[in-house]
Write a structure and sequence with these properties.
mainly alpha, two-stranded antiparallel ribbon, 379 residues
């Protein structure tokens, strides 16, 4: 099966092993270490790590289309935000009459804005299964429509990147409007429960962290299964020589559309897991700057590696957490400088650097060669 094929790869085994070990260690240190111990992992840290894993899944989704398909998407923040809003709508419906205004149906912001009834597009979000389907369907449909129009028209390169950025910017402006029914500037917040569990308890936060780790593992396997299949080889061919791939008879636009939709759905799942852990979703997640940051994560970690995207997302966001407290006004300049340095000195990212070092380590040294023939000595 195409999904189990990556499990035979050494890189996938290492990645899944490290991820599983991290989940076990964090869980153990959180549950069994005393709170006054230096090794104790607090609930805040668990939530922060869960957020990093959400970003890692988002980075993997972007690497799938940029690294293996050659499509530089500057609008994946839109798919992330749509998945987040789908989850946020479900969480808002779970509040019920416990809200500030006590309305059993209308969320607080709708009561404040004098809405008389629930909009039709909010119907069904009181059911978990419907909300989870919409987490996949909303970004998937947007990617399907956008990708069909763009790829059919053969929009490529920088023009496609600009259009994706325009898409997320337009959605940001739309969601800022109160009449859209998504909370306007304030967005959706004050969540209470998910699947009947209290979101404000440490146990639920830990459960969300573990669920995010599992989602990252599954998302990685899906992407790895795609890129190691025939579809993945065709995707790379479309990236490197699109005209030649068309000449050989491949429907390039179909390949691009399928991979793009899968990537958008993974980004939606990342957004859905992000919202209950952070506790809010607002139009700032549609910001083009955020989509550009995602590209920086992938570039830093290493394109076309998938695990490199995970490394880049975690490292950059950890640095952001640290440095926004030290130099909040200069953080964006530091991020831009980091991107320039990586582009100049590490064009293949951290994953490329690790691969080159491993290759040099595996190469035979002078002492391993036959002094007479110059070839590698054999036993």
């Amino acid at each position: 099966m195409w999904l189990t094929r990556p499990l035979r790869e050494r890189s996938t085994q290492i990645f899944l092993g490290v991820l599983f070990a991290a989940l076990v260690v964090v869980t153990f240190l959180h549950l069994f270490m005393p709170q006054d111990s230096a090794l104790h992992v607090s609930a805040y840290t668990v939530t922060l790590l869960g957020k990093y894993l959400c970003y890692a899944l988002l980075a993997v989704a972007v690497d799938l289309v940029w690294g293996y398909l050659g499509i530089l998407s500057l609008g994946h923040g839109a798919f992330f935000a749509l998945g987040g809003y789908a989850m946020g709508m479900y969480l808002m419906r779970q509040i019920g009459d416990r809200g500030t205004y006590g309305d059993p149906v209308l969320p607080d912001f709708m009561v404040f804005l004098n809405w008389e009834e629930l909009p039709w597009y909010w119907l069904g979000f009181d059911m978990a299964w419907f909300a989870f389907i919409m987490v996949l369907l909303a970004p998937g449909l947007l990617a399907l429509v956008f990708g069909f129009l763009a790829f059919r028209s053969r929009v490529t390169g920088v023009y496609l990147s600009i259009i994706t950025q325009a898409l997320t910017f337009a959605l940001m402006l739309a969601f800022f409007r109160n009449e859209m029914g998504f909370g306007g500037n304030n967005g959706l917040t004050d969540f209470r429960d998910i699947l009947g569990f209290n979101l404000r308890t440490d146990a639920t936060r830990l459960g969300l962290f573990i669920a995010t780790g599992i989602a990252l593992a599954i998302g990685y396997l899906i992407c790895r299964g795609i890129v190691t299949s025939k579809l993945g080889r065709v995707s790379v061919a479309c990236r490197d020589a699109e005209a030649r791939a068309r000449f050989l008879g491949y429907r390039v636009e179909r390949v691009q559309l399928f991979v793009f939709v899968v990537s958008a759905m993974l980004a939606g799942v990342a957004g859905a897991l992000y919202v209950p852990q952070v506790g809010i979703i607002n139009p700032s997640e549609f910001s083009p700057i955020f989509s550009i940051e995602i590209v920086v994560w992938v570039a830093l970690g290493g394109r076309a590696t998938l695990y490199g995207a995970v490394i880049g997302a975690i490292l950059v966001n950890y640095a952001k957490t640290v440095f926004t407290g030290v130099m909040p006004d200069a953080w964006l300049f530091a991020l831009g400088g980091l991107f320039v340095l990586v582009t100049v000195f590490l064009p293949k990212g951290i994953a490329g650097l690790l691969a080159s070092r491993r290759k040099k380590k595996d190469e035979p040294t002078d002492t391993d060669r036959n002094p007479d023939t110059g070839k590698e000595a054999t036993a």
